[in-house]
Amino acid sequence: MTPTTWLDIQTILTLMLLAQIHENYAWVTLTTNDTYSLGALVLAHSLKRASTAYQLVVLVTPGVSECMRHRLKEVYDIIQEVNVMNSQDAANLALLARPELGVTFTKLHCWRLVQFEKCVFLDSDALVLKNCDELFEREELSAAPDVSWPDCFNSGVFVYRPSLETFDKLTKFAVEYGSFDGGDQGLLNQYFADWAYVDIHKHLPFVYNVTAYASYCYLPAFKHFKDKIKILHFAGKMKPWLMHYNAQNKTPSVPSQYTHAADLIQLWWNIFFDNVHQRLNRSMAGLAGALSQLRLGEQRTDEQEAYDLLMRRQAWEAGQMDYTGLDSFDNIWKKIQETLQSKPEDGIGTS
Ligand SMILES: [Mn+2]
C-alpha cells in the first residue's frame, strides 16, 4: 500500500467517525409557550452562528401554538412534544415565589431522547456567544456552578447521556424525595449529589453558564472576562424579550440590573431581528404576536405600545391566557383601541 492510499484510508475513517459523532450528539432545549419560544428561536440561531456541528432538538409542551411549532421546525432538526410535569410541591414553589418553576420538571423528558448518545441541555433563556462543541467531550453530569450556591450546579446548561433507565430513576426520585427548591435544579442536584466533590472534570468553567443578573454577578470579573463568555444565561425573571424595544432607534431599554450586559442584550435583539422577527405573525400567542407587529425604524402607535406592554406584563406574571377566546389578539386590540379612544370624562364615576 502506498503512503498516499494509507493516508486516504485514514482520512476516510476519520471522516466516518466524525459523521457518526455528529449524528449521535445533540443540543436540547425546552419551550412551554410561544413567548419562551422566542428565546428558543434566538438560541438556535446563536448556535448556528457559532457554527456548531451538532443537531438541534426542541422539546415543546401543548402550550406552544401550531404556528410557532412551524417556526421552530425551520431551525431545529427535531421537535418533540412532551407533557407538562408538575413538581406538585406547591409549598416549596411558593417559597421561591416562582410558581412557574413547576413546569421545569418537564425538563426531565430530555433523558428520553435515546436516539442520541450524548446531549447538552440549554435553557431557552441562554444565548451562545462562541462555539462550545467541546462540551460533548464531557461526561454526565457536567455543569457549571450556580452563583448563589457554588456547591450546586446551575441546571440551565448541562451535559448528559439520554437513557430511559435514568429518566425512570429521576422521576421515581422526584416522587419520593421531591426537590429542595421545588424546581429541576434542586432535584437534579439531589440526584447527582456527588457533583461538587467527586470529579472536577464534571465542573464546567463558569464561562459556559454566566448568569446575567447583576445582583448575582461579580461585576469587575464580568467586565474583565466578558470576552471569554461562551454562554450567557438570562436566569431569573427578567428576559431579553421582556425588555421594551424601541423600534425607531433599534435599541432595547435595558434595566439598570443589566447595564453591564447591555451589548449582549443588544446582540440577542439583533439575532431576533435578523433571523426570527420576519417569521412571526400575529396569530401567535403572547409576546410573539405582539412583537410581530414591530416595524424597525418606525415608531409604534399608542395601540401597539399598549398591546406590547400588556403582553410583557402577562409574560412577566406568567399568567395563563385564553389565546383563542376572550384574550385573543383581536379582542385585546379592540379593547385597547376603545380605552385609548375614550375621553377622560368617560372614566369619571368608575373606580
Ligand atoms: Mn434559565
TrEMBL record:
Its EC number is 2.4.1.186. Residues 1-26 form the signal peptide. Keywords: Signal. GO terms for biological process: glycogen biosynthetic process. InterPro entries: Glyco_trans_8, GNT1/Glycosyltrans_8, Nucleotide-diphossugar_trans. GO terms for molecular function: glycogenin glucosyltransferase activity. PANTHER family: GLYCOGENIN SUBFAMILY MEMBER. Belongs to the glycosyltransferase 8 family. Glycogenin subfamily. This is glycogenin glucosyltransferase. It comes from Glossina austeni (Savannah tsetse fly). The lineage of its organism: Eukaryota, Metazoa, Ecdysozoa, Arthropoda, Hexapoda.
